[in-house]
């Protein structure tokens, strides 16, 4: 039961991360309204949607220094770090290996980090 609850909580966290949008290369200015900056950028990308972005963009904030990783929940990041040696070994052996959320797929077989020793 505990495992099921952990999986369900992880799925909820993962779902909320789907709504995360990262913008790169936007210069920071003193006293800026970050939400307004985001709305303007999105309006430049898709003209005519700026008015609707007022309702669509809920929260916007600057993050610290640029990071090279994907937008993952902390739990998924830990799982991928633990699974990385297994995925790397599989790739080195010529197998098809990738990540899907908090688990790895190697030649179509699922590997969860809790089952890997």
Give a quick rundown of the structure.
This protein has 4 helices and 3 strands, in the order ααααβββ.
Task: Please characterize this protein's 3D structure.
With 117 residues, the protein is mainly alpha-helical. It has two domains: 67 residues, no CATH class; 43 residues, no CATH class. The protein is 46% helix and 10% strand. It has four helices and three strands, in the order H-H-H-H-E-E-E. The chain has a three-stranded antiparallel sheet with strand order 1-2-3, with helices on one face. The radius of gyration is 19 Å and the shape is elongated.
Give start-end ranges of low-pLDDT stretches: none
Mean pLDDT: 82
Number of helices: 4
What gross morphology would you assign? elongated
How are the elements arranged and paired?
Layout: H1 2-17, H2 34-45, H3 50-56, H4 74-92, E1 97-100, E2 103-106, E3 109-112
Antiparallel strand pairs: 1-2, 2-3
Entry keywords:
mainly alpha; 117 residues; single chain; 2 domains; 46% helix; 3-stranded antiparallel sheet; 4 helices; 10% strand
């Amino acid at each position: 039961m505990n495992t099921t609850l952990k999986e369900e909580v992880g799925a909820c966290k993962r779902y909320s991360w789907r709504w995360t949008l990262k913008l790169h290369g936007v210069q920071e200015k003193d006293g800026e309204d970050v939400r307004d900056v985001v709305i303007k950028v999105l309006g430049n990308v898709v003209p005519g949607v700026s008015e609707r972005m007022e309702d669509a963009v809920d929260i916007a904030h600057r993050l610290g220094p640029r990071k090279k990783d994907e937008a993952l929940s902390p739990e998924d990041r830990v799982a991928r770090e633990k699974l990385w040696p297994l995925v790397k070994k599989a790739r080195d052996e010529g197998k098809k290996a990738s990540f899907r959320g908090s688990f790895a797929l190697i030649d179509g077989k699922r590997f969860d980090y809790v089952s890997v020793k």
